[in-house]
Design brief:
about 400 residues; Phosphorylase Kinase, domain 1; Transferase(Phosphotransferase), domain 1; three-stranded antiparallel sheet; globular; EC 2.7.11.1; PIM_Ser/Thr_kinase
């Protein structure tokens, strides 16, 4: 008798537990996926119409995997929501855990292009397997930095020399925030655009006495917060702005003709290599003064880019006063016609340095070509500064103009 009473009490307690906890989420459902079941009518409200029941089923359910029977009380609804979030969190955790494990194994084998970030930035490998700290130490051991030569929109340039042979160099510091554009080289590495362009300019075919050969990039260092470019520094030399002022504010036609021929040949070389300088002006041209005949050198490729014949640009980068007219009217421009326009601006300022050239003034006829110049020279200027880009001559056609012969 005692055994029967004990059994009945245990049985009643089990029935009460199963009835009171029928809407609670079982423990195993928190770890195992819940199978989708066919929609059932909600049991809330016996006098509910069919249309209202369907609306409650379609619109009021917090999550599609919550049982319809659990809609009878707010406690059961909260359990369903909790259950859904737990399943979502567990799924995300499993996914990231699996991805991290898989990527770690792939990186260890060298089969993955995705590299895990190292929290110690000072030890992060940046260039040729060397850390930023190692590169900084190498730069300080190899070069001595002196006075500042100039400052532009992309960085600052300092004079200096190389310790082993006392070679005079120009050292350019570029904050990484000013060099966001990257270019992939032949080995697949991402390089700063200016570095990638200047590495292409090391070709010996670009360097000749009759060309405005670009300055050569000797070394470069990728540090944590900045890039350091070490370039050759022609001595004696001065930028074309100072050179024109030293000559009284204008240059004679014969001397201008020599400089323009050199610039055009270098512009053709850049075009053949699909390089767009974007900011050719007298401040970005060095004139070597060590010989009787002036020798021009093109510098500052900070806003340069790689281009093609069909490339069209909608954002202007360069000197705002020298913007090509087509950008003011159509908000677009191309590399070839823009380079011809900029060469025309350089030539205009060699004869009219007292007047600051702006595109708006020239279009408004507030700036005029000097009538004292020869007819061929005036015709050459008008061709380069034509307001219609399709009517400007090609770079290669400029060399055959009568004024340059």
């Amino acid at each position: 008798m005692r055994n029967e009473e004990r059994f009945n009490k245990v049985y009643d307690k089990l029935c009460w537990c199963s009835t009171s906890q029928q809407n609670q989420t079982p423990l195993e459902d928190l770890t195992e996926p819940e199978p989708r079941t066919s929609p059932q009518e909600p049991t809330r409200g016996k006098g509910m119409k069919r249309k209202s029941q369907e609306y409650l089923h379609d619109k009021k359910k917090p999550f599609p995997n919550v049982d319809n029977e659990s809609m009878g009380s707010s406690r059961s609804v909260n359990n369903g929501v909790r259950k859904k979030f737990l399943k979502m969190s567990r799924a995300k955790f499993d996914f990231y855990k699996h991805a991290l494990k898989k990527n770690t194994a792939a990186v260890a084998k060298g089969e993955s292009s995705r590299k895990l970030e190292n929290p110690e930035k000072a030890k992060q490998k940046i260039k040729d397997g060397r850390s930023a700290k190692e590169q900084s130490a190498e730069f300080e051991a190899k070069y001595v930095e002196l006075d500042q030569l100039g400052e532009g929109g992309c960085g600052s340039v300092f004079s200096g020399y190389r310790k082993p042979d006392n070679l005079q160099v120009a050292i350019k510091h570029i904050p990484k925030c000013n060099a966001p554009v990257k270019l992939q080289d032949e080995s697949g590495k991402l390089l700063c655009m200016e570095v990638a362009v200047m590495l292409k300019l090391k070709d010996e075919a670009l360097h000749a006495v009759d060309k405005a050969s670009p300055v050569v990039l000797l070394d470069w260092y990728d540090l944590r917060k900045e890039l350091i470019l070490v370039m050759e520094r022609p001595i004696p030399a001065m930028d074309m702005l100072d050179y024109i002022e030293s000559k009284g504010g204008t240059l004679p036609e014969d001397e201008t003709k020599i400089i323009m021929r050199q610039l055009i040949k270098t512009a053709i070389d850049l075009e053949d290599k699909n390089i767009f300088h974007r900011d050719i002006k007298i401040e970005n041209i060095l004139i070597e003064t060590g010989s009787v005949v002036p020798h021009a050198r093109l510098i500052d490729f900070g806003v340069s880019c790689m281009t093609t014949e069909r490339s069209c640009y909608r954002v202007f980068t360069g000197t705002p006063n020298h913007v090509p007219p087509e950008f003011l009217t159509c908000c677009r421009y191309r590399a070839g016609p823009t380079t011809v326009w900029q060469l025309g601006v350089v030539m205009f300022e060699t004869f009219n340095k007292s007047e600051n050239f702006t595109t708006e003034k020239f279009i408004g006829k507030n700036l005029k070509i000097r009538e004292e110049l020869s007819e061929h020279c005036q015709d050459f200027l008008r061709a380069c500064l034509n307001t219609f880009p399709e009517k400007r001559p090609k770079l290669k056609d400029l060399l055959s103009h009568p004024w340059l012969k």
